[in-house]
Amino acid sequence: MTSDTPRQLIACAVLATALALLPIVAPNPYYLDLATKACLAAVVCIGLNLLSGYAGQLSLGHAAFFGVGAYASAILCAKVGITPVVAMLAGCLISAGIAYVMARTVLRLKGHYLAMATLAFGVIISIVLNREVALTGGPDGMSVPRFNLFGYRTTGVWAGYGLAAVALVLAVRTAIVFVNSRVGRALRAIGDSEVAAEGLGIDIARYKTGVFVISAVFASVAGSIFAHADRFVSPAEAGFMRSVEFVAMIVIGGLGSVAGSIVGATLLTLLPQLLAGFDHYRHFLTGLILILIMIFMPAGIVPTLLASGRALHDRYRPFGRSARSVTGRTSEG
Amino acid sequence: MAPLLDIHAVGVSFGGVRALDGVSFSTEAGRIFSIIGPNGAGKTTLFNVISGAYPAQQGKVVIAGRDMTTAPPSARAALGLQRTFQNLQIFGTMTALENVMVGGHLRQRTGFPSALLGLPSVAAESRAMRRRATELLDLFDLAGLGGAVAGELAYGQQKRLEIARALACEPRILLLDEPAAGLNPSETEDLANVIRRLAGMGIAVVLVEHDMRLVMAISDELLVLNFGRELARGTPAEVSSNPAVIEAYLGVEVD
Amino acid sequence: MVDFLQFLLSGITRGSIYGLVGVGFALIFRSSHAINFAQGEFVMIGGMATVFFLTLGLPLVLAAAGAVVAAALIGALLQRLAIAQAKNASVLTIIIITIGAGMMLRGAAEIVMGRNFHSYPAFSGELPVDLLGAKMQSQSLWVVAALVLVTIGIHFFFARTRLGKAVEATFSNRFAATVIGINVPRILIVCFMLSAAIGALGGVVMTPITLTHFELGVPLALKGFCAAIVGGLTSPFGAIIGGLILGLSEAFAGGYISPTYQEAVAFVIIIAMLIFRPQGLFGRRAVERV
């Protein structure tokens, strides 16, 4: 509903304010580092959710695009001496190119084929990062220079956090406008019924390719910022388990929900830290929580909460039917 | 002048079974053309061949003077062809209003770059489309339901929504696949008026329908299919007096 | 010639391992159209539980049998307590539940067995078998034997038993299966138990070669999943053949071309497969109805 758009843009402003206040409320490098990671995971998830939650395509290799962005920034800045912004753009171009070629070859097939192709491709990328030791430092990873913009060097965790927060706000705004545009509606239509969408003149292959490329670029940007924020990259960031984590984040937060992407990313980033006190029981408990959320909120946290909020709202307005916002959308991936 | 829709000797086989065999017809703007026949006669297959869901193995499909026999559905839609589905294909998780807005896909311009940048033109286009979609919802008696999730609407409402969606891109040819199925008599009466009005707007309506009373009342021309072949063609009066039709199909209905 | 034979033998060993892991994916995909991301953990449990039972002083046969039974029980619990609880859930929700289950099982293994590698002696001694100059570990024969046993067992199960036929019916049409009185929820449990047991059996026989570790399941599951995809994802036999193809390709590519990218071979095959034969070797192309 586009009547919701201004409301969503207000939410966007609230998010920006909250992100800006965080360093003042919690001026602690450890918290800032976690917040940086959560913001960047959220950027990846917002892009991935456009692909899975709206267009209904599953990707099991999105961490590879994160890795491409991270290593493009790392290698181009550290070994070639290119300025970070340009390196980040180069990473985007490489990710977009790979995504385009993959989509063209695989997306014409229906079913879980994209999932399998992204899985295979993602693992290959992470193997390459592990093996090309001369270029990437292999399994030990490599260090990355600081981010700088037009010669202004940035310092400390603050800078990394600032970049991540700006990226998140931009990603949220982009996604909201995108979803409520003709293109976004076409993608959601594809997710609901390909036959009907095609009959309305929507070029399905083109739209799926487009959204796949976009989601790859979101992941790539997040990867580049991560490289500079952490000043270090390792192949584990591009690994299969990271890809699976991203999928888990959007399903838990809520498919087809921008807010859900942020909630899922934040929760799964913080959960292992919150459970750090349990030491050996950490993995076990994380898995258990994942299962419980899926059993009790199969549509994801945000859509479930919105639905119960709506039900409460409707109860006091028996004749008024509240409009559904895009963030209330649920669908199969 | 070439006819708006010209189907020429199309044939389709499914694993040795002839689903369609040398079927031809053509129709013009403003006419209501109906395809009837018993179950399995090939009516829906014919619709699928016209809309491009699968290609004709023999023959030609010419839309607005262009040979579209092998073109994908989206290219046919671009020439002004729209359809509804026998087993509804509503966008179930989107609102009714959004369904109709997607219907106007081809009448809008926004591409990936401007959608990503969120240019002012994007919101302006959506606003204009929303106005048109709201009008269409009103026209189909769905006023006030724009915000409702389409998948949660009643069956009759979904059927009307599907027609409204198809109209959103101002089609020149509209294929309706059993629009009266599951409707009660008064809803069917409303539907007949809607179809007449569409033809009055200059749309070439092609109808597959089992409700003989409706078909006979509104059609300009009829095609009777039996086992994938043409059994008869003509005005309702001609068809209903055709002995072959009476024997094969209408006998039961006319009495 | 000796090289060739050596690569062949090591390829068959690898391939048998992948096949044993892949069968479980195919069985579960066949019954519920979900990818079970906890499949690798069943394999890990096979090895870990055997180690655990051996330290309790049980003889090997009992320890191995105990491990397989334990895995089957865990499979049943996973289906019953987690997957069956998420009613009307999408396939994606089920996939996430299996991911959570995988984490829990890894976590449980970590709690009980720690973060070390574990193993136990090969079943027939550590002396390698000599075959025309090529050598192979005697344990490899046990792995191959397990694969043969599983192949025959599955064939018998689907061709001869009522339960197997019910699984087939559920696969082709779940609704129709319910109508003719098949207890579909029970079938789903059976499939999970079977997958878990086969995975665990794989773990039991491969541990003397691969060792076991609480995180061993992930890389194994990836290869097994690839094997299942090559086989068409719905066919247990396809997964076995797929596993052998992957294992042999890896062994020959590693031997004749370069060991650097040996690990990538399986995934390159998957991509080639998706481009040239997307339905897999033994899968049927889905026919779309409008």
From TrEMBL, chain A:
Q: What is its main location?
A: membrane
Q: Where in the cell is it found?
A: Cell membrane
Entry-linked InterPro entries: ABC_transp_permease, LivM-like
Q: How does it sit in the membrane?
A: Multi-pass membrane protein
Locate the transmembrane regions by residue number. 30-51, 82-101, 113-129, 158-179, 209-227, 247-271, 283-306
Q: Which UniProt keywords apply?
A: Cell membrane, Membrane, Transmembrane, Transmembrane helix
Q: Which GO terms describe its molecular function?
A: branched-chain amino acid transmembrane transporter activity
A GO CC term attached to the entry:
plasma membrane
Domain of life per record: Bacteria
Under the heading Pfam families, the entry gives:
BPD_transp_2
Extract the PANTHER family matched here: BRANCHED AMINO ACID TRANSPORT SYSTEM PERMEASE (PTHR30482:SF18), HIGH-AFFINITY BRANCHED-CHAIN AMINO ACID TRANSPORT SYSTEM PERMEASE (PTHR30482)
**Could you identify this protein by its name?**
Branched-chain amino acid ABC transporter permease
Q: Which organism is it from?
A: Xanthobacter tagetidis
From TrEMBL, chain B:
Q: Which PROSITE patterns match?
A: ABC_TRANSPORTER_1, ABC_TRANSPORTER_2
Q: Which UniProt keywords apply?
A: ATP-binding, Nucleotide-binding, Transport
Any matching Pfam family: ABC_tran
**Which positions, given as ranges, span the membrane?**
none
Per its UniProt record, what Gene3D superfamilies does this chain match?
Answer: P-loop containing nucleotide triphosphate hydrolases
Listed SUPFAM superfamilies:
P-loop containing nucleoside triphosphate hydrolases
A cellular component term from Gene Ontology for this protein is:
plasma membrane
* Residue ranges occupied by any ABC transporter domain in the UniProt entry: 2-252
Select a single GO molecular function from the record's annotations and give it.
Answer: ATP hydrolysis activity
Which superkingdom does the taxonomy of this entry point to? Bacteria
**InterPro entries from the xrefs?**
AAA+_ATPase, ABC_AA/LPS_Transport, ABC_transporter-like_ATP-bd, ABC_transporter-like_CS, BCA_ABC_TP_C, P-loop_NTPase
Q: Which family does it belong to?
A: Belongs to the ABC transporter superfamily.
- What is the protein named? ABC transporter ATP-binding protein
Which species is the source of this protein?
A: Xanthobacter tagetidis
UniProtKB/TrEMBL annotation, chain C:
Recorded hits in InterPro entries, A to Z, give: ABC_transp_permease, BCAA_transport_permease
* Locations listed in the record: Cell membrane
Transmembrane helix: is it a keyword of this entry?
yes
Key words of the record: Amino-acid transport, Cell membrane, Membrane, Transmembrane, Transmembrane helix, Transport
Which domain of life does the protein's organism represent? Answer: Bacteria
Q: Which CDD domains match?
A: TM_PBP1_LivH_like
Offer a single GO CC term for the protein: plasma membrane
Question: What are the transmembrane regions?
Answer: 6-29, 50-77, 89-109, 141-158, 187-212, 224-248, 260-276
Q: Which family does it belong to?
A: Belongs to the binding-protein-dependent transport system permease family. LivHM subfamily.
**Name of the protein:** Branched-chain amino acid ABC transporter permease
**What species was this sequence derived from?**
Xanthobacter tagetidis
